[in-house]
Specification:
Layout: E1 5-10, H1 17-23, H2 27-41, E2 53-57, E3 60-67, E4 70-78, E5 84-94, E6 97-99, H3 103-115, E7 120-123
Parallel strand pairs: 1-5
Antiparallel strand pairs: 1-7, 2-3, 3-4, 4-5, 5-6
């Protein structure tokens, strides 16, 4: 059994925004992203760190994945259940530019919606 549970942000149409993004990535990237999440799910919080995990702002963190020459980031936050990390948005990264460009702001908005009990969560 995993140490950590992962949740996903659901849009107001109750679509899994993370899974929707993930299915748009190539097969190798999907496998690496899922493997990275599985790795983090099975280690203690104090072991979460680079190269797979880093803070990016106030209460927002990134899961970091490299697949070939491409970099991927999944922005998320701790919480909304014990031993739980919530996946807020998936992004591509090139240099210092994220795709979508407003990914950090979107993650912050989604976190706020959940904090205010106006966001929906699903199981990963």
């Amino acid at each position: 059994m995993s140490i950590w549970k992962f949740k996903v942000f659901l849009s107001n149409r109750e679509l899994d925004t993370f899974e929707e993004w993930l299915t748009d990535q190539d097969k190798e990237a999907r496998v690496r992203i899922r493997n990275t999440i599985a790795y983090l799910a099975n280690i203690e919080r104090h072991q979460w760190g680079r190269p797979y995990f880093a803070p990016i702002g106030k209460s927002i963190y990134e899961i970091r994945v490299q697949s070939g020459k491409k970099q991927y980031r999944i922005f998320g936050c701790f919480g909304f259940g014990p031993q739980t990390f919530t996946l807020l948005i998936g992004t591509g990264k090139k240099g210092k530019t994220y795709t979508p460009k407003d990914a950090i702001k979107t993650a912050q908005k989604r976190r706020k919606l959940i904090d205010e009990d106006r966001g929906y969560l699903g199981e990963y």
